[in-house]
Amino acid sequence: MSRIWIFGCVLVTVVAALKTLIVAELAYPQAGPGMGILSGLFALFFALTAIVAYVACTQLNRHVVQRRREKLAPGVSEPIAKETVILRHAPDWGLSQAEADVAIFVAKGFSNSEIAGMRGSAITTVKSQLGRIYQKSGLETRYQLIAYVTDEVVSMAKEADTPDAKVDTANVLPLVGRRKQTAA
Asked: In whole angstroms, what is the distance from residue 50 CA to residue 108 CA?
């Protein structure tokens, strides 16, 4: 963080010095201005440039935080869950529904053989889907996927008003052979 502040101060100083030199050359083309005028112009330009940089950085930070909240904050009916993170990122990553399902199961900690059994598919199919998930998401391993999803869930929980929302996975995870419960 201190590097950012140092870089910002150096940048503001350089911009203020350039502005001072340009104005001094334009206002006093023949005889150069005195040190008092130069230092006054520099102080004025430094202050103005610093104010503009501060306002721009705070507005940019506010925009980034707002975009993150829009993307991660769960809606009224969305639970704070791993499924939510995967389903929100699936369109950005270009995942198919089957790949999103596999990613959800991986994020929940299931092995390839367990996923294949629950989905009614071959283990090689799950492995190839995992390869496409890693390629599309930019992640390299199942552990990176699990860590990424967990970090996003934690971020959502910190930003949400009701952090203990009920997780209902029945509508999110289509499983082969799921039995419907009937009221007795």
From this structure: 48
> Cα(106)–Cα(66) distance, rounded to whole angstroms?
29
Terminal Cα distance for the chain, rounded: 61
Torsion of CA 157, 158, 160, 161, to 10 degrees: 120
At 163 the pLDDT is: 43
CA dihedral 5, 7, 13, 18 (to 10 degrees): -150
Largest interatomic CA distance in the chain = 99
Give the other-Cβ count within 10 Å of 21's Cβ.
14
Three-state SS at 117 = helix
pTM of the model: 0.48
Measure the CA–CA gap between 69 and 155, rounded to whole angstroms: 9
